[in-house]
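Researcher: Re-running this chain for the archive, since the previous output was lost when a drive failed. Same request as before.
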Amino acid sequence: MQIIDGKDLVLGRLASYVAKRALSEDKETFNIINAENIVISGSKKMVLDRYKFLVEVGDIYKGPFISRMPDRLFRRAVKGMLPMNTTRGREAFKRIMAYIGESELKGTKVSSKDLEKFHKKNLKDQKYVLLKDLSELIGMKIKNR
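Model: Regenerated C-alpha cells:
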C-alpha cells in the first residue's frame, strides 16, 4: 500500500500518475492523504467557472450528481483517467482512496523525490486554486460537530 501526501501537488499530474500505477500489473493500492491541499492549476475564475458548470448542469432528479468534497473531486479526476468500462479499470479505481487531512494509515510513504515533478512550484504561470477553496466556493456543506 502506497501513501501519498497530496499537499501542494498538482491535481492532473498526480491523478495521471496514480491512475497509471494502479493499472499496472503490480496492482498497487494508493491512499492519498491531505486531499484538500491538492492544487488545481489555472486562474481562480477559470477553475471556478468550469466546476460550477459541472455542478449546476443536469436535473435535480436525474443528475449528474457531482460531489463537492475535495477527496471526491480528486477521485473523480482519477476516474476520468481510467477505462471504467473494463473490469481492469473498475478494479484499479477501487484500489485508489483519498482522505481529507492526516490519516493513521499503515503502509509505505512515497518519497517526496518521486513526486517532485508534480509540485506546484513547477507551474509556469503560478496561478492555482486549492481543492478545499474550490470546494467551499462551489457549495461544500460542512457538518456541524
